[in-house]
Amino acid sequence: MPEAPAMHIDKGLDNTIIGESRKSFIDGQAGVLEYVGIDIDELARNSTFEEVVFLLWNDRLPTSSELESFEAELRLEYPLSQGVIEMIKGIPHEASPMHVLRTVVSGLALEDEECNDQSFESERRKAVRVLSKTPAIIAAFDRCRRGLEIVDPDPNLNIATNFLWMLNGEVPGEASARAIDVCLILHADHGINASTFAAMVTIATQSDMYSALTSAVGTLRGPLHGGANERVMNMLQSIGDLDDVEPFVMDSLKNKTKIMGFGHRVYKALDPRAKYLKTFAERIAEETGNTDLYVLSTRIQDIMDREVGAKGIYPNVDFYSATTYFSLGLAIDLFTPVFAMSRNAGWAAHSLEQHQDNRLIRPRCQYTGDHAVEYVPINER
Ligand code: CMC
């Protein structure tokens, strides 16, 4: 019998490197994030979400003709089929949009003729479909629950602009569309975060891209992960007044209640996305008359810096994205779906990378239960 390898417990996998990747690099001590070696700040300033998706899926920037044909490929897949529209119309209006998104992404597989084709090219095409249709799914459900007609996607618009068009039924101003575009860039990938890991575990069983992305949506919605942005907004609304910030934060810290939008498993410095989003939140809040919200947020940050900054607890990506989305007029329960809209890029990038060099992901646990337990017949228990 081969000798069992030495094992150690790493709860939460904090100190486990699960493999190699060319997608994103995080330096948690210095607060650096790069996609395929390019600093996130540079991409937020100069790039578009579509270009970032190409970058993550091909490990290099596209030429202008490559970008043009990639955008055309994405736009062809914007529309939802009648079957999917009927599925969305049949969902109770009270449903949480993340449950809706998870269900409908899964439902897309039902009408895909190549659903069981596990070739790399087929899985990539499925990723294109999910990424392109996710904005339409979110917008269609939101309009249905508001009793409004569903707005068809416009193939002349980019993903960010098209999303706002389908949501509101009017073409957004350039500033709002660019704000969403930049948020999509900033959320597109982040190493082996929980939802990306869920997608990789799924694809590694030689399941399929729909199953991988469905697992990822379900994982993202938790408040310790992508669901935090909605909780940040709920928190800001529940505090309400600037004078109430200090007692709120101090009580939370005393009771060991987490302040949503702060802390990170990897960053022990300021999350570089938060730095960018803070500037953004300030500008958009000012333009839309939501300065109070921004000021409230900065007061929370000041107190947190003073109290727990030395422990490496700083705002993460979710903290200032909440104010940004709220100022842009998004319903609070659409914040996490917008995160998913973007993270589709990273989920698919890592799933395709896993697909190309696959090994079943199958960790072990330390059994702590009893052994040789007697089976007691049911009528004797
Ligand atoms: N507020 C107050 N204290 C905190 C916070 C927070 N948000 N985050 C961590 N701490 C404290 C925690 O109480 C603990 O203190 P002590 O050592 O005295 O017991 C210490 O920091 C370590 O915390 P942890 O929960 O063991 O650390 P972790 O690596 O498991 O936590 C985290 C990472 C993101 C789960 C956690 O910081 C958290 O729950 N934050 C709030 C939720 C949130 O904003 N999540 C979004 C994460 S970033 C975007 C994404 O990935 O989706």
The CATH level-2 architecture of the largest domain is identified as Orthogonal Bundle
Q: How many strand elements?
A: 3
| Computed structural class | mainly alpha
What percentage of the residues does DSSP assign to strands (E)? under 5%
What would you give as the CATH superfamily of the largest domain?
Citrate Synthase, domain 1
What does this structure look like?
The chain has helices spanning 40-46, 49-58, 64-76, 82-89, 97-108, 120-145, 159-168, 174-187, 194-203, 209-220, 228-239, 245-254, 272-287, 291-308, 317-327, 335-356, and strands at 24-27, 32-35, 38-39. With 381 residues, the protein is mainly alpha-helical. Helix 9 (194-203) packs across helix 16 (335-356). It is globular. The mean pLDDT is 96. Carboxymethyl coenzyme *A binds at residues 193, 224-226, 228, 256, 258-265, 308, 311, 313, 316-318.
Task: Describe the structure using short key phrases.
Citrate Synthase, domain 1; binds carboxymethyl coenzyme *A; 381 residues; mainly alpha; Cytochrome p450-Terp, domain 2; 2 domains; globular
Short description:
The chain has 381 residues and is an all-alpha fold. The chain is built from 16 helices and three strands.
Secondary structure elements and their pairing?
Blueprint: E1 24-27, E2 32-35, E3 38-39, H1 40-46, H2 49-58, H3 64-76, H4 82-89, H5 97-108, H6 120-145, H7 159-168, H8 174-187, H9 194-203, H10 209-220, H11 228-239, H12 245-254, H13 272-287, H14 291-308, H15 317-327, H16 335-356
Antiparallel strand pairs: 1-2, 2-3
The chain binds carboxymethyl coenzyme *A.
Carboxymethyl coenzyme *A (CMC) is lined by residues 193, 224-226, 228, 256, 258-265, 308, 311, 313, 316-318.
